[in-house]
Design goal:
Creatine Kinase, Chain A, domain 2, globular, Ubiquitin-like (UB roll)
Amino acid sequence: MTSQSPVDYVLHTVEERGLKFVRLWFTDVLGSLKGFAITPAELEGALEEGMTFDGSAIDGYTRVQESDMIALPDPNTFDIVPGRGDDSPVARMFCDIRHLSGEPFSGDPRHVLKRNLDRAREKGFTFFAGPEIEYFYFRSETEPIPLDNAGFFDLAHTGIANELRKRTILALEAMGIPVEYSFHENGPSQHEIDLRYSDALSMADNVQTFRTVVKQIASELGVHATFMPKPIAGAFGSGMHTHLSLFEGDVNAFHDPGDPHGLSKIGKGFVAGLLHHAREITAVTNQTVNSYKRLIEGYEAPTYICWARNNESALVRVPTPRRGKESSTRVEFRSPDPACNPYLAFSVMLAAGLAGIEEGYELAPEATNNIFEMSADQRVSHGIASLPQSLAEAVDVMEGSSLVAEALGEHVFDYFIRNKRAEWDSYKEQVTTWEVDRYLGSL
């Protein structure tokens, strides 16, 4: 008996469940989720040939004179979206974006990640990722008023925070997105949900779904969820610490039982690559002006480029796997935030790690001290550099990176830099409340 193909499964499920609409999702260059809905009558044709849409309406896609593009659904991403009522269930599929000729569109972030994964696959590697996603709930989207003042791991028995997280996790699980942990984070009304690791393409799709589900359920309960990296001055910001690993078949390429710390030569090269190219990829992993309000001392976010096993001040952490769980050997990259485009962020992290392996970068000694307590001279003597301190600095560094240019491709690389320079120029024009409070009365 032959197994059902993904296309047949989609067509059968839509008919069996009586779905009225199927949403076709895709992502613009900055990571905003886009999409449109089709009816079941259009579904078979869409799966075979894709659906034409106006690409000039999407930031970073095409110009008006070459606007028509094709969204080709990936049947492997088909799932029913929960929470829309049993009377009118809706499904979704992620799409790959193509030109009318059928050629992949180089400005499609999903294609960018696929291209980088293909490069890793040619070297015998499968790339896995597992993000820890932090975010805030506020009473409205116009002012950051928290729902609670609880702290790290606090059990809030009142309010709706627990209900929000519970509904979110149940919705994710119903869509086949397994959750490993969830808890209250350090900041007021700040929460964290950790997704169980999977291959990087599935995980990037899952992160996009996650952000949508979190916001949708919050809206249904009358609150606002935000992935803004630093919405409250003086409080902890939201990160997206991401656990990374490479597998060769079923074998974790990062694990070496003969190494004192269990980290293989491949794993060490990957960490060295992340450290060597960290400044170059920061504009992608931390893509907003606000991102750099999080990457400062005093709030546990990494600011210095070093690695350690159990040192929370390090940019890259290599957690010690539990006994008997050596296949879980991984590295944790701690600078990304949840406002990034996951397809592009995973792409540049992979590119940096592969460069470290291919070029044989030497891994610097482990940072055993609290980096934040070291003086500037001590950090210099230990060869510990800083991450960029602003979006402008990060974009300047990125612009000179051949690694990032190759990983993203010319179309995305050029658009991203233009867009982020425009964002910084707009920010420079603003006069903030802090400036008014500090200077207006005294100058």
